[in-house]
Amino acid sequence: MSATRVLLAGVAALIATPRAALAQDTTGTITGVVRARETEVLLYGATVQVVKTRIRVETDAQGAYVLRGLAPGPYHLRAQFLGYAPADTTVLLRGPEQVTLDFRLAPSAIELNPVVSIGYGTVRKKDLTGSASSVNGTDLETNPVERAEQALAGRVPGMQIQTTNAQPDAELRIRVRGGNSLSASNAPLVVIDGVIGADLSLINPNDIETFDILKDASATAIYGARGGNGVIMVTTKSGQGPIHLDYSTYIGTQDVTKHIDVLNANQFALLYMRNPSRNKSISFDTSSSLPTTDWQSLVYRAAPIQNHELRISGSTEDTKLMFSANWYDQQGVLRGSEVTRGSLRFNLDQHVGSRFRLGTRATYSRTVANDARVNDGYGSAGGPVTMQTLRFAPTIPVYDANGNFSGPLLPGANDNPMAIIDLRQDQTTRGYGVGTLFGEYDLVPGLTLRSNLSFTSNNLLGQQYTSRRLQASLNQGQANVNNSNAITWLSENTATLHRTLAKKHDLTLMGGWSAQQTNNTANNAQGVGFTSDELGYNRLNVAQTVTGGSSASRQRLLSFFGRLNYSFAGKYLVTATLRDDGSSKFAVNNKWALFPSAAVAWRASEEPFLHRLAPALSELKVRFSAGRSGSEAIGSYQSLAAWSIGSPYAIGTTTFFNGATISRFANPNLHWETTAQYDLGLDLGLFGDRVTLTADGYDKTTSDLLYNKLLPYFSGFNDYITNIGRIRNRGLELALDTRPSLGAVQVRLGGTLSLNRNKVLDLGGDQEFFLAGANSSLPNIRDGAIVQVGQPLGNFYGYVFDGIFQNQAEVTASKQGTVLAARVGGEKLKDLNGDGQVDPDHDRTILGNAVPRYLFGFTGSVMRKGLSVSWSVRGALDFQVVNLNRLGMETPGGSSNMLTSVLNHWSPTNPTNTMTGIGIGPSSNIMTSRWVEDGSFVRLQNVTVQWELPARWSGHFGMQHLRFYLSAQNILTATRYSWYDPEVSSRGTSDLDLGWDDSSYPGVRTVTVGTNVSF
Amino acid sequence: MAVLATVVLAACSDWLVEEPQDFFPLNQFPQTEADLAIALGGIDNWYSGGSNQPYFIRGWPILTEVTSDQTITTQTSGTRYEMDSYTLTSSTEWLWRVWQQIYGGIGAANFLIQHIPQMTEVSQDVKNRYLGAAKFHRAFNYFNAVRVWGGVPLVMTPDTSLAAAESSAHNTPRAPMPEVYDSIVKDLQDAATLLPLRWPGSATPDDGRPTRGAAEAMLADVYLNMSGALVGENHWTDAARAAKAVIDSGGYSLVPNFADLWLIKNKNGPEHIYSIQFQGVKRNLFTCQSRPSGVGTESCTNYWFSTRAFMNSFDSTDARKPVTFLTRVTAGTVTYYYDTTATDGKSNPFGDFNSRGLGFEPYYGKFFDAGGPGMINQNNSRTDLNWPIYRYAEVLLMYAEAENEAVGPDASALAAINQVRARANLPALAGLSQDSLRTAIRSERSFELAFESKRVFDLKRWGEFYDTLSVDPVASIGIQPFHVLMPIPQYEMDLDPKLVQNPGY
User: Fold this and answer.
1) Cβ-defined contact of A662 to B30 (cutoff 8 Å)
2) A285 Cβ partners below 8 Å, 6+ apart?
3) Which residues of B touch A636 (CB under 8 A)?
4) What is the rounded distance in angstroms from the CA atom of residue A343 to the CA atom of residue A665?
5) Could you tell me if B174 and B212 are in contact, meaning their C-beta atoms sit under 8 angstroms apart?
6) Which residues on chain A are in Cβ contact (under 8 Å) with B81?
């Protein structure tokens, strides 16, 4: 307690506010409970506020509130809760006493209106004309996630949040209403406290107060050229109530969700010895019992996760302050992988006089990630550790007789997974600092000027070292160090006029301009040829060959924008938005583009003829919007012709690294992608908004796609970036939220459903193009995915696997030779057009699609007194995954370990049609339906049990509240997918290369216990 | 007010103008001699760079050596098998990979050829050298293309504007084979005039930069091909004159010991006229791909090998035989053999292909510099060995062949071939008829230049392509007479409707 006081005193000194409410002997306390009038239910989360001050607290799970540190005097208190009418009362505090004051709230159709951030302002939810979804950060508090968006999965209709794999620090793929673009990024714009293009992955999730996801053109057009993919508006917490100190922590453990069944040593040895084309320098005595090394149990572990957070926040009449410090550490279930993040945040809002306000939002975080090699290639690269764990021979012990890591079965083959873990370092350190200073001035009543200046520094340091003992750089050793810096400044200046005329016309007019500049610099160095492993990347100039490079670029954006919100009698709502964006990235004559939008809404529930239905019908709003937003998400300088410097070449025995090649010609026509979107929405509130339903239908077409149009190679170029083609996304979204009134039990149930249908309308004259697959992964399947006019993105394309050749007669009759040599016990391909021949032009077809046709989520919570249980279930239906892992693990008798499915290999006496014969592997360079699996899944994502001590107990220890919880993530997944997790994308987040599972990181189940205490 | 708005908007637009920070715009580069040097290095990168090691790192041998009768792949499916067995299609990987690199080099050369005459900051002497080098590279790439595919799109100016690219790229037909050859001859004649015998400061005639000798050697080769079965013109005299020019230049000589020629430390020696350079981070993979696996620390990927039949056709006293073929490998304390168990008593013969119905086959010896500076296992399976394009021995054989055809089996022709035979420890030829000398030269080429991507083109120009490969055990799986020309890559066919595919595909 005394420590707390010291801290509080320090904070008070920091903000230099004499009015900071400190607990002193002369001050008193007001305490009590807030109940529902009819049911007597204690209300959790109700606000109790001292009217006309910033002093406010929320009730705890027992409905109790405590206002401490109040100077003697009269107090006007107001209690408010969603779905209830506010209640006011006054009380006189005579001195250092404790006064008890309870509230009983009457149910009401008039909701406590939440506000939605819409960019350069907020609007009350009931006045919103566009499509936006909000999620309260406190709903996500007990989810132990590395980055905040992970917890949003399934909670926002129309938004897909997909982990590309479960490695700590792995990328997330986020889409709002499907993918618009082929080449440019489809990730939504993130705006954190007004900082455009901020990085959600690098901030503390618990600093977030609310997410507002802007989806339709009316909402996104205010961000013009960057709004086309949707916008995630994030507002961080600001101080509230008397100054208090919160400490939150959770610790937990993570486990692999699935064990892959591979052969044991005897099974492996037996099949190997039966393989006639084996390497005969290796032999096993299959008559004896061979010890099995279970590589999975060595490589995977129960990994700890922990999070600690200290928060000091509070407000006075003139000051709001929030300071938080956070430390997060997640070790990966795969030994050696880990992410650690420390972050600080300081948010301040200060009134200076009656007309001027200023404030700051400042954060710094440092994230250190140690990555295991996954989703990667084989060959001379030595193999990703995830696949080596499964493929490394089970007959080999971890260490050899000399205590060194055992080598592979065949010389030169891929490495021992434990050796890869131990002998390879891959560390990424990111420093992310954002500082914002803003000022607001009320020029005249109703007219506010605001100026915002922010500065962001994003620094990345990558350090890798591969030992001399690993195949990837055998007897050499290789170190890489790369450093990149992005420095951005942003200045935004707005004027907002608010007028109410004749009590019926409510008008808000906002106009402003914005300028932003980002300077990127990067440098890298590589050392090859180390004499020993000791110094690694810390001293790469020990290496024989050291090479390096640097690069620099700059982007600028200049924008003018405005918005009109007009409401007539609170019933008829109109919003019009316009943004004029200029970007340095585009060609000289196409730098500027205009993004207009408009929306209308009718709150039918405000019409007199519907009043008789109140409060059963508490809200009925119909919305329609139309407009355009854009995408400029391509690299700088793409419109300019260029020589790029940096190709190595040799003259005699000297190697040079500065060869110049013509990399691109000028495209003076390059301009924005434009997304035109229509949205029709309905907001329904029933029974005093105890049931709310939001439904939206949308149709958006993106045109002038930024697209790398192919050129014949004889032009000397591969392609050029240009604007062609169109893609359409249409969809439906539903969100339901219910808070049934069940006596003493508070229940909340919600659900979301999203359907998005994507279609490529035009590719600028091309009919289709194939996707080679970005990674050089062993199953070097070419042309496995296709983009075709009239089809959605994400289609897999190839031959149909048609079983196994059973006998020589079938082989002789087969005409698949030019595609895949026919042999007895080998894979048979289907002759789709029945012309007797299997050929690439006529016998390949669409094998599946990687984009789920249905996304859904259900959330719920039940609370009685201090005990609550909450859960979330989410799922995705009707999509496919290409499981390339199996391709490397289904060769019966192969020299690396295989899946147990090979035990059922084909033989003359076992005429199976699912597995090839001994010594016959799958074709590794054509795509077939054999690897395409159903990815549909339903997942119990989260269950949390929470218990809050009654205030009368925690109060004894000087605490405002004390909470404990037990939370489990990724508990159970129902799916037919055979590998770790169908929600996977080994080839990254592009919409063109989705749905490949190739050496992915295993799925992870997490169980944590946490506590939250507030002083 | 309007004026003010105009000024503000102009200022705004100025603020958005991009200024390149880490690359040169086309109109500002190259300006100096140093600029030209790195631009020329960029052309070199088309030979030894690119994704998936497309050209001389390994793509060219896969396209032109695996397809010959002297090399067989270990593979039973995949692209190397498709090449070897002539079951390839217009989509087979190495066709487009090599094509892409060829035209990348041509595009860069075209730009320099157009740009260099307009440069103001460098002397005429410097301009000549680099202009000659650019013309050499354009000719070399077209020569490779025309021998693989026949007529190809003849792009002689750079498509460096959007309009040019859009109009020409999708609308260019293949030029007839003679027209392509004529442009090659023209470029090489210019190059031979413009280029020096040796670049200033270079310690060796060949350091990877084109020289007069390289241009004349290639010109001789071009004339031989123009006089061959596919083109059918008569340029024997021209060929002899070009080869003679190289011989008379006095810049080159045979390395006395054939084995020394193939050591990495001896690259760019007196016999090398033009080689693709591999050094340091620029290392080749063709050595690895033609090495056996299962030979301890000298193992590599075992993708292709030679044949006993070819090895046995060498004279037993031929000094080239033990250098050309790899029949044993010593790694550490163990010696491995291609046809019998290793000295460790258990390792199988590394050349055992009984499961493919072949038996014991020897590997390549030429590219196997065991324990040299590029020891395979110390260098990520790559070595610093150069890929030879022209050696003096070939120039001698080209001279002999051209002279024999143009004039007859005269003394100079015999002297040229005998110089090569003498180095191989073989007796001199004398008193041969034109026909017998022709036969002798043909087999001498096959022994001397084995695995150097000469064989397939020799068979084509001698009209022996189909007859030879139809009795090759693997090629015979799919070979047809039309395979004498490879199919134009499907990728190009799809993008340019004006392209007409070679017959048969």
Assistant:
1) no
2) none
3) 18
4) 44
5) no
6) 821
C-alpha to C-alpha distances, A240 to A224, A321, A471, B181, nearest whole angstrom: 34, 8, 58, 83
**Could you tell me which residues are beta bridge partners of residue A351?**
A357
Tell me how close the Cα of B238 comes to any Cα of chain A, in angstroms: 30
CB of A517 within 8 A of CB of A555?
Answer: yes
Give the pLDDT band of residue A381 (cuts 50, 70, 90): low
Largest CA distance in chain B: 100
Number of separate helices (H) and strands (E) present in chain B: 19, 8
Q: Which residues of B touch A637 (CB under 8 A)?
A: 18, 20, 23
Q: Which of B20, B300, B381 sits opposite A642 (nearest CB)?
A: B20
Q: Position A849: which residue type?
A: N
Q: Do A640 and B77 touch (CB under 8 A)?
A: no
Question: Which one has a higher pLDDT value, A265 or A950?
Answer: A265
CB pairs under 8 A between A and B: 257
Strands A937-948 and A424-444: unpaired
Dihedral of CA A873/A876/A878/A879: which sign?
negative
Q: A19-23, A466-470, B66-70, B129-133: which has the minimum mean pLDDT?
A: A19-23
DSSP for A686-704, written as a single string: ETTTTEEEEEEEEEEEEES
From the list A289, A283, A351, the residue with the least C-alpha distance to A317 is A351
Helices (H) and strands (E) in chain A, counts: 9, 53
Interface test with A, best of B77, B152, B274, B356 (most A CBs within 10 A): B77
A1001 contacts: CB under 8 Å, gap ≥ 6 = A165, A166, A167, A170, A332, A334, A337, A372, A374, A375, A386, A980
CB contact under 8 A, A716 and B107: yes
- Pick from A536-540, A618-622, B19-23, B416-420: least confident: B19-23
Share of chain A above pLDDT 90, in %: 52
- The structure's pTM equals 0.82
How far is the alpha carbon of A471 from chain B, nearest alpha carbon, in Å? Answer: 8
| pLDDT-based confidence at residue A108 (cuts at 50, 70, 90) | low
Residue A774 has pLDDT above 60, yes or no: no
At A324, is the secondary structure helix, strand, or coil? strand
- Asked if residues B499 and B173 have their Cβ atoms less than 8 Å apart, the reply is yes
Q: Of A1003, A988, A995, which is closest to residue A375 (Cα–Cα)?
A: A988
ipTM value for the complex: 0.93
